[in-house]
Design a protein that fits this description.
Layout: E1 3-8, H1 12-27, E2 31-32, E3 39-44, H2 46-55, E4 64-69, E5 79-80, H3 84-93, E6 97-110, E7 117-121, E8 124-128, E9 134-140, E10 143-156, H4 164-167, E11 179-187, E12 200-203, E13 208-211, E14 219-222, E15 225-228, E16 232-248, H5 254-259
Parallel strand pairs: 1-2, 1-3, 3-4, 4-5, 4-16
Antiparallel strand pairs: 6-7, 6-16, 8-10, 8-14, 9-10, 9-13, 10-11, 11-12, 13-16, 14-15
Helix pairs in contact: 1-3
């Protein structure tokens, strides 16, 4: 991999780390190419990598991502800011393994064709309404599963199981499993209405559809991004064939990452 690009968190320390990496890698023959990189080096945290994935969403077939954490070790990041020399050595000298994470494909079906669109998420998508109770009918593979009443729903991937999903009481899913996990957000449960009320983990080839009489005032949140759902009639989610490729130059311990969050 000869062409590199940088995505950095906007703070002085992350900028300093980026400059160290760039000077040494360019000195060793690599080329900075912000448009067509082979390797995207993310300096910051897991949020920086999410930002980078969406920034280079049209390059996912050719670019790999690697993270340098300028705080505590994250789930996506391979190196800390104390391991810059190791990072430089590995990029220049070590063989690279390819860890892939499938994206969540979210198809928004509008009331007219021009309101329809498709977006992708690495961690999760959420339908949230903080203005009023959001009523959502959930269909799995076309079969009605439940009616949710509350703030909304969250559908996460395996890599997203440690993110927003975890704060909802969802399960943390072991690395390498390809699944979707459905969790309700502050659901209303009483004698006249109740839903499953616990997270539901599905195999990757399921299709999950969310429908409502109205999505007015509701937001679709995906990773660090969001959009309103006005003029949207239903939201259809599947695991995409599109993947994010992470460059791994050394052994990776998912358990070590898990232990860092408690």
């Amino acid at each position: 991999m000869k062409k590199i690009a940088f995505v950095i968190r906007k703070d002085d320390h992350s900028l300093s780390i980026k400059n160290q990496l760039e000077i040494n890698l360019v000195k060793s023959g690599m080329i900075v190419d912000e448009k067509n990189p082979d390797l995207v080096i993310c300096v910051g945290g897991d949020g920086t990598i999410l930002y980078a994935v969406h920034k280079y969403s049209n390059k996912l077939d050719t670019a790999k991502f690697i993270g340098v954490h300028t705080g505590t070790l994250g789930f996506f990041t391979e190196y800390t800011d104390q391991e810059i020399d190791s990072c430089i050595h590995d990029i220049l000298s070590e063989p690279c393994d390819d860890f892939t994470a499938a994206l969540l494909e979210v198809n928004l079906i509008g009331d007219v064709p021009q309101h329809s669109k498709t977006i992708y998420a690495l961690n999760e998508m959420r339908i949230e309404n903080i203005i009023r109770t959001q009523v959502i009918d959930v269909y799995i593979d076309g079969e009605h599963f439940e009616k949710c009443r509350g703030t909304g729903v969250c559908l996460s991937t395996q890599v997203g199981s440690t993110a927003y999903n975890r704060s909802l009481g969802g399960a943390v899913i072991d690395s390498g499993l390809s699944i979707m996990q459905l969790s309700e957000i502050t659901s209303i449960q009483h004698s006249k209405h109740h839903s499953l009320g616990v997270p539901y983990i599905m195999m990757r080839n399921r299709s999950v559809t969310f429908m409502s009489d109205t999505f007015n005032h509701a937001l679709l949140c995906y990773d660090h991004l969001y959009m309103d759902l006005e003029n949207i009639q239903k939201v259809v989610c599947t695991i995409s064939d599109r993947c994010v490729h992470f460059a791994r130059y050394r052994p990776y311990s998912y358990l070590k990452r898990l232990k860092n969050i408690y």
